[in-house]
């Protein structure tokens, strides 16, 4: 059921936001697989001219496997739209991303896009961060700094920030940028904009998995086969 929900959200986003002659940022994760499937299908059927910029090794492989045009931010530093998944989305479209370890590249690509659209299944939908996603906020760090950064985060913001360990190799997870990831399990709701900025200022931090004020729309595939669309709340 969750896989079908991912597919529904991905297809809706691609159908509503992809047009001819666009440069598209391609996110990472399991839901993006369906988005690239649909993108490739539309490119073939409608003879669309689409250039794709990946957010990770996984995204790059998906683009190549589907015969889509691969580029990068050197050649295309401005994107028309970026589509990516999320580990959790709150009522204000603040996101936790980076469960797959690609948070820094994902944030760079999203930041280069005129429009950033999120796709997810119903399990990722929350009123507040931490309700559904229990693994914490990923923080990418320079390897030599992981201990002091972990201590600083815990001291200043509470909770604990643990080094993410690999499953199929000995030692920690290593990102596409050759860095480590801390997973900060916070204890209570925060002012995410302020916390995001404060953590990024800690020496040794590359970036966080908090995406604040970046997404302009989220598509959720629901259990009943519908797609729920959420835009940011107007203050």
From TrEMBL:
GO terms for cellular component: cytosol. Gene3D superfamilies: 3.30.70.260, 3.40.50.1360. One of its GO terms (molecular function) is ribose-5-phosphate isomerase activity. InterPro entries: NagB/RpiA_transferase-like, Ribose5P_isomerase_typA_subgr, Ribose5P_isomerase_type_A. SUPFAM superfamilies: D-ribose-5-phosphate isomerase (RpiA), lid domain, NagB/RpiA/CoA transferase-like. Pathway: Carbohydrate degradation; pentose phosphate pathway; D-ribose 5-phosphate from D-ribulose 5-phosphate (non-oxidative stage): step 1/1. Its EC number is 5.3.1.6. The keyword Oxidoreductase does not apply. Keywords: Isomerase, Phosphoprotein. Transmembrane segments: none annotated. The keyword Endoplasmic reticulum does not apply. One of its GO terms (biological process) is pentose-phosphate shunt, non-oxidative branch. This is Ribose-5-phosphate isomerase. It comes from Neolamprologus brichardi (Fairy cichlid).
